[in-house]
Amino acid sequence: VQVVESGGGLVQTGGSLRLSCAASGRIFRVNTLGWYRQAPGKQRELVAAITSSTSTNYADSTNYAESVKGRFTIGRDNAKNTVYLQMDSLKPEDTAVYYCVCSARVTGGSPWYSDYWGQGTQVTVSS
Q1: Could you give the angle at the alpha carbon of 31 between the alpha carbons of 3 and 110, nearest 5°?
Q2: ∠ CA 105-81-35 to the nearest 5 degrees?
Q3: pLDDT the model gives residue 44
Q4: Which residue in 13, 62, 68, 100 is deepest, having the highest Cβ count within 10 Å?
Q5: With contact defined as beta carbons under 8 Å apart, do 61 and 50 qualify?
Q6: pLDDT for position 108
Q7: Are strands 72-77 and 96-106 parallel, antiparallel or unpaired?
């Protein structure tokens, strides 16, 4: 499974960026898609994640870090195995490398889900 992020860059405080991520390969099913970030000298932390609902009667479930609630929005396209992260009202403390992670089962493989990571995309917010 290949995971590729795009959309990082440099933005001023208060600005917006949209990150995108696409998972491809021998994917049987994708469960959770998420974004993590790692700032210099800090541990990698969860930013947001979205888990696909198993019923059309229920929306996908989302999970956000407290520091980004109300500013970031995660969404997915199940048909394309893609996920985006809309980041608004950006702050200098949002500066980090952002990583996409895809929890998936592969075709013809184990029945268990494994996590697949992208290479990361740099987001820099200037003050």
Answers
A1: 85
A2: 90
A3: 97
A4: 100
A5: yes
A6: 85
A7: unpaired
Query: Tokens 């980041």 appear where?
Result: 87
Give the number of other Cβ atoms within 10 Å of residue 106's Cβ. 15
Mean pLDDT score, 62-69: 97
pLDDT per residue as tens digits for the range 92-110:
999 999 999 999 999 887 8
Written as one letter, the residue type at 51 is: T
Distance CA 64, CA 95 (A): 17
Q: Average pLDDT over the chain, rounded to whole?
A: 94
Token readout for 50 is: 């979205």
Q: What pLDDT sits at residue 58? A: 75
State both tokens at 58.
């229920």
> Are 2 and 21 within 8 A, CB to CB?
no
Are 18 and 120 in contact, with CB atoms under 8 Å apart? no
Find the radius of gyration of the CA atoms of the chain.
15
What confidence tens digit (pLDDT) does each residue in 55-64 have? 777 778 999 9
Instruction: Give backbone dihedrals phi and psi of 70, rounded to 5 degrees, phi first.
Output: 85, -15
15 contacts 125 by C-beta, under 8 angstroms: yes
